Amino acid sequence: MAQNALVIDGIGVDFSGFKAVDGFSTVIEEGEVRVLLGANGAGKTTLMDLISGKTKSTEGSVHLFGREITNLEEHQIAQAGVGRKFQIPSVFRDLTVRENLIVACARQPSVLGNLRLRRNAAERRRFDEVVELTALGDVLDRVAGVLSHGQTQWLELGMLIGQGARVMLLDEPTAGMTVGETMKTAALINRLRGDYTMLVVEHDMAFVREIASKITVMHLGKHLAEGRVEQIEQNPAVREAYLGSGGIH
Amino acid sequence: MKLRLTTRGALEAAAYGTFILVILLLPTVADVFWLNRFAKYLVYGMLGIAVALSWGYAGVLNLGQGLFFGLGAYMVAMTLKLQSETSMQQGADTPIPDFMAWNSQPGALKDLCCIAPGSWLWIPFQSQAFGIAMVLLVPTAVAFLIGWSIFRLRISGVFISIITLALVLLVRLLIVDWQPVTNGFNGLTDLGWLTFGGFEFDPYVVPTYYLVAFGTVAVLLLTRLLVATRAGLVLQATRDDANRARYLGYDVARYQVFFFTVSGLIAGIAGAFYVIASEFASPTFLDLTFSVSMVVWAAVGGRNSLLGACIGAILINTIQATVSESEMLAEAWKAIIGLIFVLVVLFLPRGIAGLARDIAMRLAALLGRGTPAAQPLQKSE
C-alpha cells in the first residue's frame, strides 16, 4: 500500500460569500498521477492556489506526507515539497535556460547560504538529470524568453523536478501545444510517474487517457466524482454536470 | 555555445581590467586639482553601481538613493567637523562645532552635552573610528528597515519609487529643520581631514585620490562578485518573476531586502568618500534631483551592467563639468541630459554597456571566424 502523498480534507475558501472551492476532499497516493477535471469555473485552479499557498483557505486542511501545510507561505510549501506549474508558463525570461535550472536546483533557500559561486555535487547531479529528462541540452545558453512554447513548458516542468518537488501541481501542462509536443509531454510525465506524485488539470481527453491513474471531477467548487477513466466516463453525475457541453469528449 | 560564453566572459574581464587600469594610472597624467574632481566622479560611479544593483539586478527603482548617500555623508562629516581647527577654538576643552557656538543661547554651557538640544548626539563622533563605523552602520540599518517594511508587504514597482522618493524628501526636511544639531540648510562645512595612522587625507593630494579609487574598485569588484553568486542569480530570478521564485521555495522578500540593503550601504560609503573629497556635507545630497540624476546615469551607462552604470555616471559628470565652462551650454545642459535619457530609454534600453557589448561581440565573432580556439578571441577587445 503506497503512502498518502497529499491529503486534502474539506478545504474551502470563501471570497466574501462566493465559495470558489467548497469542502473539497481527496487523497492522492505517492506516485499517482491524478487528473482534475471540471468545467470552467469549477474551482480547479483555485484548488491549486489553496494547496500551494497562493490563496489562504477559510476551512479544511492540507497534509503533505503527513505534515500539515495548510495556509503556510508559498515558499514554505514549496520547500516542503510542492512544485507548481502555471497555466501560462512562468520561467525567468531574462535568464538563460542554464541559469533557470541552476536557480531551481539550488538546495539552499537562504540568502547567506547562497553567497557562493560553485554548485555542490548533488546540485550538479540534479541539474544533469533535469537536462537529460527535458532534452534541453541544446538550448542551455539561450535566454529563456526566446524558447518555443513547448520548450518553455518543459523548462518549467524541469524546474519543478530540479527543486525536488515530491508533489507537482500542473495546471494545463499541454495548453497551446501542438499534437507532437503534447505527446512528448505525456511521455515525460509517464517517465516521471512513480517517482513523483502529480495533480494535473487538463481538458484534452486524449492526453488525460494517456497519463491518468485516476480522475477527480470538480463541479461548482465541490468534489463530484472520482475513479478510473472508464468509470468517470460512465458516471451519470458527471454526465449530468457536463450536459451543457455535451458530456466529456 | 561554450566559445560564445568564454568570449563574453573574456570581453567583460577586459572591460573591467581596462577601467581599473585607467583610474589607477590617472595620477600619472593628471594634476591634483583634476584628480580631486575625478575622485568625486568616481564617487558618482559608486552611486551608479548602487543604482544598477537595485534597479537593474533587483528590478527595484529606488528614487531615494540620495537618502543613504546623505546619511553616509553626514556621519563622516560630523566626525571630521569635530577634527577641524575651528571646532577646537570655541573656548572649550572639547571640540564644539562653530555653528553650535554661534547659535547657542547666552550662558549655555559650552560643552557638546548641552550646548543645544540634541547636541549630545555629537559626543561619540569625537572618535573618528566611531564616525566611520556609523558610515557603515546607519545607511545599512536604515536601508534594512525601509527594505524590510516594503518587501514584507510585497510592495512592488512604481509604489517603491514613490515611497523611497517621499522618504528622501522627509529626511531632507528633518535635517534642514533640525538646525541646532545639523546646521540646517547650510550643512556641515569647514571640515577637518580624515587621518589614518598619522597621515592626513588632504583632498588635494594623490593618496586621497587613491583612497577613493581603491574604494571604487573594491566596491565594483565585490558587487560584481556578489551578483555572480547563486544569491545574485536568485535575485535576478525574482526580478523576472517573483512568483516563480516563491514557488521554487525562495523567500523572495529576504533576497530583496538583502540586496536593497547592500545597495544602500554602497550609497552610504559613496557619501562618505564624497565628503572626504569635497570637504562638506549638505542637505542638497538629499535633493530629489540628485537621486533622479543617479537613475539617469545608470540608465545611460546601462542599468544591467555594474561597470556600465559606473562609467555612465563618470562620463556624464565629466561632460557636464566640461560643458558648464560655457554659460550658454550650462543652461542648456539639463535639457540635453533629459533628451539623452529619453533617447537611451527608447533606443538603447541596455545603455552604453549594452551597445558596447553588442559591438564587441560582433567584432569578436568577426575576428574569431575561422580560428578554432577561444584563445585568439580573448585578445580582441
From TrEMBL, chain A:
One of its GO terms (cellular component) is plasma membrane. It comes from the Bacteria. Residues 6-245 form the ABC transporter domain. GO terms for molecular function: ATP binding; ATP hydrolysis activity. InterPro entries: ABC_AA/LPS_Transport (IPR051120), ABC_transporter-like_ATP-bd (IPR003439), ABC_transptr_urea_ATP-bd_UrtD (IPR017781), BCA_ABC_TP_C (IPR032823), P-loop_NTPase (IPR027417). The keyword Secreted does not apply. Keywords: ATP-binding, Nucleotide-binding, Transport. SUPFAM superfamilies: P-loop containing nucleoside triphosphate hydrolases. NCBIfam families: urea_trans_UrtD (TIGR03411). This is Urea ABC transporter ATP-binding protein UrtD. It comes from Paenirhodobacter hankyongi. The lineage of its organism: Bacteria, Pseudomonadati, Pseudomonadota, Alphaproteobacteria, Rhodobacterales.
Automatic annotation (TrEMBL), chain B:
InterPro entries: ABC_transp_permease (IPR001851), ABC_transptr_urea_perm_UrtC (IPR017778), LivM-like (IPR043428). It is a multi-pass membrane protein. Keywords: Cell membrane, Membrane, Transmembrane, Transmembrane helix. The keyword Metal-binding does not apply. GO terms for cellular component: plasma membrane. It comes from the Bacteria. The chain crosses the membrane at residues 13-34, 41-60, 129-151, 158-175, 209-235, 255-274, 306-323, 335-353. Pfam families: BPD_transp_2. It is found in: Cell membrane. One of its GO terms (molecular function) is branched-chain amino acid transmembrane transporter activity. NCBIfam families: urea_trans_UrtC. This is Urea ABC transporter permease subunit UrtC. It comes from Paenirhodobacter hankyongi. The lineage of its organism: Bacteria, Pseudomonadati, Pseudomonadota, Alphaproteobacteria, Rhodobacterales.
